[in-house]
Amino acid sequence: MRAPTEAFTYRYTHYGDADVLKRHQYPMPAPGPGEVLVEVISTAINHMDAFLRNGKEDTWHDDPWPRSSGSDFAGIVRRCGPGVTALRVGANVVGHTRTGAHASHIVVPADQLVAKHVAIEWEVAGGLFLAGATALETLDDLRIGPSDTVVISAAAGGVGSIEAQVAKYRGARVIGTCGERNFDYLRQLGITPVRYGEGMAERIRRAAGAPVTAYIDNFGKDGREVAAALGVPPQCYRSSADRRQVELRLLRDDAESVSHATQVLQRVVDLAGAGAFRLLVSGLYPIEDIVDAFEDLAKLHARGKIVLATRPVTRARTLRAREVFERMP
C-alpha cells in the first residue's frame, strides 16, 4: 500500500463553538532534525481544548491564526528526522503537544513521545496525557498516600476517575462525589460514592468514618465550603482553578516544561500499563465527527474520556446508556 501524500488537521480562524473547526488538507509534512512524523490513531478532546477555542482561556491569545486543536494523541511513527535514534519507524507511541493533535498526522520533537504499553488499547492511549498528567501532578502535590482519606469531586470524569484510582492504588481511602447514576461505576473501581447536593458534607463525614485529610475539587462549585466544613486544612484543598493552572503548565512549550510533561506522561503510561487505573472511554467518535464529540463533552455527562479515532472499525452510532438516561423524563 502506498504511503499517503496528504495529511489533514482540524483548525479554526476565529473563536467560537465547535462548529468553527474545519478540516484542512495539506501535503504530508516531513520531520526536521530531532523530529518524528506520527500517524495519529486516536486523540482525545479536553475541556481545555474547548476553552482555548472559544476564548474563555486566553493564555495564548497572541497565537497567530489559523489555530489548531488538541494536545493528546497516540499513533505510529512513520518517519524519523535526522538525529532521531531512540525511536524507529513503525513504533507505537503516546505523545503530547500544546496543540495540533486533532489530525491525521503530526510532526513533533521525539522527546514529546513515549512508547505505548502493549496492554493499553489505542483508544485509551490517545486519552492519557492531559487527564492523566493533571491527576498525577495533583496527587503528587498533595502527597496522597496510605494515611489519607481524600474526597474527589467529579470522580467519574476523566481527571477525577484517574485521581481516584491512583489514590486508591497508593493506599488512600477515596470518596468520590458524583450524581447517582455514577454510583455503580465508582463502586466498581473501589471508590465510595457520595451524592452531590445539600447536606453533602454530612454524607461525606458518614462515609469517611475518619477525618478527611484532602479534598480535590474538579466540580468547581461549593467545594471550598464543603472542605472547610469537613475540617480539611486549606493547604490540602485543590480547586478547579488550581487544576486549570496544572493543565496550563503541562501545555507550555518551553524546553523545561516539555521535558517535565514527557516525564509525567511516561509515569501515566507505566501506571496504566501496570493496571493501576483503567481509563473509561465513554465516547469514541470518528475524527470527522469532531463537532459532535465536543458537543457531547459540553453536556458534562460523560464518564472518563471522549476520544476521536482516525481509523474507526465502524462509523455506525450506537445508543449509549447515558444517552438513555438523558432522555428519561
TrEMBL record:
Entries under CDD domains matching the protein: MDR_like_2
InterPro entries registered for this protein in UniProt: ADH-like_N, Chloroplast_QOR, ER, GroES-like_sf, NAD(P)-bd_dom_sf
Q: Which SUPFAM superfamilies match?
A: GroES-like (SSF50129), NAD(P)-binding Rossmann-fold domains (SSF51735)
Single GO molecular function: quinone reductase (NADPH) activity
* Keywords per UniProt: Oxidoreductase
Any Pfam family hit: ADH_zinc_N_2
EC number, as in UniProt: 1.6.5.5
Which residues are in the Enoyl reductase (ER) domain?
Answer: 16-308
Instruction: Give the source's domain of life in one word.
Output: Bacteria
Gene3D superfamilies recorded:
Medium-chain alcohol dehydrogenases, catalytic domain, NAD(P)-binding Rossmann-like Domain
What is this protein identified as?
Quinone oxidoreductase 1
Q: Which organism is it from?
A: Microbacterium trichothecenolyticum
Q: What is the lineage of its organism?
A: Bacteria, Bacillati, Actinomycetota, Actinomycetes, Micrococcales
